[in-house]
């Protein structure tokens, strides 16, 4: 199939990938727009994996204050260079993260940072609920495992579905941004404040 400039522009608008990357993806997928989007996302994952270990000593701190000043959030988003830290896409993503933290109130950034006592308390509740419902021991374990996974996805920032677009998790959005920016990007710290809490 002949790839024209309009197709490249449409793919670029959808993915924000570079023009040559879009053209190459369309050529590799014989002009199939959806397959080209998937291919670009896969390449973004590969770039993110290569860049994961690199130091992120630049970045920005963004805040979000909800109307009325009762809830606020602050996020430190880091990257490798000052150049990327000042791009509109990077700053906008940091602002969106702050809004997300204010709205969803994650307990931790990563699964490893979730306090053990929070997990243990929740697990005890699920085990007791399952036992009270009369389920056999082997079923209880599977039920609790599934409920714990769901609970972790609700409280871990990277696993949460993005409040502005639930089709993507925060981790997927970061991976996509890494692919676009070509640098390692990480969330260093988050804080959420609520009047009276």
TrEMBL record:
Region Involved in Mg(2+) ion dislocation from EF-Tu: start-end pairs: 81-84
Role noted for this protein: Associates with the EF-Tu.GDP complex and induces the exchange of GDP to GTP. It remains bound to the aminoacyl-tRNA.EF-Tu.GTP complex up to the GTP hydrolysis stage on the ribosome.
GO CC annotation, single: cytoplasm
Listed InterPro entries: EF-Ts_dimer_sf, Transl_elong_EFTs/EF1B, Transl_elong_EFTs/EF1B_dimer, UBA-like_sf
Gene3D superfamilies the record matches: 1.10.286.20, DNA helicase RuvA subunit, C-terminal domain, Elongation factor Ts, dimerisation domain
Gene name as annotated: tsf
CDD domains listed in its UniProt record: UBA_EF-Ts
One MF annotation (Gene Ontology) recorded for this entry: translation elongation factor activity
Similarity comment: family membership: Belongs to the EF-Ts family.
Annotated ranges, domain Translation elongation factor EFTs/EF1B dimerisation: 38-196
Keywords from the UniProt entry: Cytoplasm, Elongation factor, Protein biosynthesis
Record carries keyword tRNA-binding: no
Record-given protein name: Elongation factor Ts
Localization, UniProt: Cytoplasm
Pfam assignment, any one: EF_TS
Organism encoding this protein: Desulfocapsa sulfexigens (strain DSM 10523 / SB164P1)
């Amino acid at each position: 199939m002949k790839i024209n400039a309009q197709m490249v522009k449409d793919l670029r608008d959808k993915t924000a990938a570079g023009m040559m990357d879009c053209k190459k993806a369309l050529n590799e997928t014989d002009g199939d727009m959806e397959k080209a989007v998937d291919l670009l996302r896969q390449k973004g994952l590969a770039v993110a994996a290569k860049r994961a270990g690199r130091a992120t000593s630049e970045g920005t701190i963004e805040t979000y204050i909800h109307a009325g000043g009762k809830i606020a959030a602050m996020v430190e988003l880091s990257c490798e260079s000052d150049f990327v830290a000042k791009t509109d896409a990077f700053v906008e993503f940091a602002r969106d993260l702050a809004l997300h933290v204010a709205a969803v109130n994650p307990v931790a950034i990563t699964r490893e940072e979730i306090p053990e006592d929070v997990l243990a308390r929740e697990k005890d509740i699920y085990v007791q609920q399952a036992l009270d419902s009369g389920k056999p021991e082997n079923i209880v374990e599977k039920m609790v495992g599934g409920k714990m996974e769901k609970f972790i996805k609700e409280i871990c920032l990277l696993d949460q579905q993005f409040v502005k677009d639930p089709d993507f998790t925060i981790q997927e959005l970061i991976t996509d941004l890494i692919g676009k920016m070509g640098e390692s990007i990480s969330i260093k710290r988050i804080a959420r404040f609520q009047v009276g809490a």
